[in-house]
Amino acid sequence: MAEAASKLDRRYTYRDYLGWQDGERWELIGGAVYNMTPVPSRQHQALVGNIFAALHAYFRDKTCEVYVAPFDVRLPAAGEDPDAASNVVQPDIVVVCDKAKLDDRGCLGAPDLVVEVVSPDTAKKDMAEKLDLYERAGVKEYWIVHPGDQTVMVFCLGDDGKYGRHKMYEKGETLAAAIFPELVIELAEIFA
């Protein structure tokens, strides 16, 4: 526990992150450390599984690949050495269409689509820090899934490189992905 507490005291890089063998899961955002070790709720895992299944089925015969956490996404700033990256996250689900971004460590660069299922412990980070990070990194589409409200907020990167106003989908609606026009998901099935 003392080692975990010491991780909160300074800024870290991906190089530091690779050396942590403590059995805990961590994320780095701007070099700040976030512990991902607590076990997600059953509801969280069910939603992640349902969304992953829908995305996996859609992308089965396509060039994009779908991954579920734990899966490292390294988002170095422009010109930053990837091993010195201060942003390493483990989104619940990612879709990567540029296979050159994939390596044995995960994804280096912005995925095309990121899905985060919020929990009381992660809501602020997912809706503020990660939203800003994904926008800066160039993630084309970001879904924030709210289990309690049974809603999905969809943010799409505009031509100006910014997320405009989000689109909100509710349980009884059909979510249509902006960057994959043929991808539609019945949210009643996701939240069932």
UniProtKB/TrEMBL annotation:
Residue stretches making up the Putative restriction endonuclease domain: 16-187
Gene3D superfamilies: tt1808, chain A
Gene Ontology molecular functions: endonuclease activity
InterPro entries: Nuclease_put_TT1808, Restrct_endonuc-II-like, Uma2
Cross-referenced CDD domains: DUF820-like
Keywords: Endonuclease, Hydrolase, Nuclease
Pfam families: Uma2
UniProt superkingdom: Bacteria
Protein name as catalogued: Endonuclease, Uma2 family (Restriction endonuclease fold)
Organism of provenance: Sporolituus thermophilus DSM 23256
Lineage of origin: Bacteria, Bacillati, Bacillota, Negativicutes, Selenomonadales
